[in-house]
Amino acid sequence: MSKALRTLLFSCILLSLSVSSYAQTCKSYSFSSNRVYASCQDLPVLSAFLHYNYSSSANTLDIAYRVTGATTSNWISWAINPNGQQMAGSQALVAFQNSSGAMRVYTSSVASTSISTLSESALSFGVSNLNGSFVNGEMTIFATLTLSSGMTTVNQVWQVGPVSGNNPQSHDTSSNAANMRSVGTLNLLNGTTTSGGGTTHGSFMDLVDLYVTKPKMGELFGTTAWFLWNHRNKVRLNDRTLLLNRVGEAAKNLVQQVQSVREGHRGVRRTRRCKWTPPQVGDFKANFDGAWFDESDEAGIGIVVRDSSGLGGGGLIVSVIGGGIWV
Ligand SMILES: *[C@@H]1O[C@H](CO)[C@@H](O)[C@H](O)[C@H]1NC(C)=O
Ligand SMILES: *[C@@H]1O[C@H](CO)[C@@H](O)[C@H](O)[C@H]1NC(C)=O
Ligand SMILES: *[C@@H]1O[C@H](CO)[C@@H](O)[C@H](O)[C@H]1NC(C)=O
Ligand SMILES: *[C@@H]1O[C@H](CO)[C@@H](O)[C@H](O)[C@H]1NC(C)=O
């Protein structure tokens, strides 16, 4: 198992390195038509980038919000939210390709989280030069915003979601979705950003970091991966299996059990207090216990049989050494 675990982790690290070599950064990106922006941010989730020019004298913000890996059935949106790092109150720019193949780009003031689509409405600040493009899987919104003076640190909210029948539909709202972490602040004067959606766990590089800095987490990861794989096999065969939301807990328990057995074998064996109850008259009860020792490749099983008065009717000690059985 530990060899398989190492192999699995190693392939994950290799995979993550090859994935990250494809990762783009906004700094190396050049727009067609000689458009240049002085600043840019690689947004932490949703394969999104913000390129911008900010003029503190004119209070204008020229932006290009760019999403890679978009399709004709995606909408994209970037917003400033004067109310907070949240959806409700977002002053949004929205774009998607409509069924005629044209880019529809508009503004939408998002009143609440219970809306069914992003309908067009005016924003609380001025917007001009609104335009959009969709080329080679990259969808971009261009705009010039005229902000009020002093609006130098803004809450930004960005999204990608599905389009149906020329209407943007709700994005993924499951609690761990990237769409729930796509908020933060942006300081327009010096480019400092914060992520409002908590730490952005979820990329392969996070996993590599975790594995390097906390080796014990590697065991947990491998075990969780095994449980998921096992779950998937069981589902395929219509077998009974754990509920998917119990997998994390089951993996944690198994890792803890293995660790405590390992520690126990190093000398500090902890014994659980169990209470034995005798079987009914005429019945016998067999109790057994087993242990497995990694270092010496040995295992042992002990069996005790007793009757209703608790008298030992018999017993058996079995040891397994390198595949042979000794009784
Ligand atoms: C952004 O500002 C630079 C000068 O800093 C200018 O050359 C460029 O044209 C501006 N880009 C846009 C899109 O306004
Ligand atoms: C698609 O958008 C273009 C440009 O806004 C518009 O002229 C056209 O009517 C739209 N088509 C549909 C089906 O909404
Ligand atoms: C908007 O974008 C389209 C396609 O990228 C381009 O042809 C058009 O000239 C742009 N319009 C403006 C006003 O910049
Ligand atoms: C950017 O500006 C903010 C507030 O104006 C300040 O708190 C922050 O330390 C600055 N960051 C850098 C990197 O200069």
UniProtKB/TrEMBL annotation:
Pfam families documented for this protein: DUF568
Alphabetic keyword roster: Electron transport, Membrane, Signal, Transport
Protein name per its UniProtKB record: DOMON domain-containing protein
Domain DOMON span(s) in chain numbering: 46-161
Signal sequence range: 1-23
InterPro entries per UniProt: AIR12_DOMON (IPR045265), DOMON_domain (IPR005018)
Organism (species): Quercus lobata (Valley oak)
Compartment annotation: Membrane
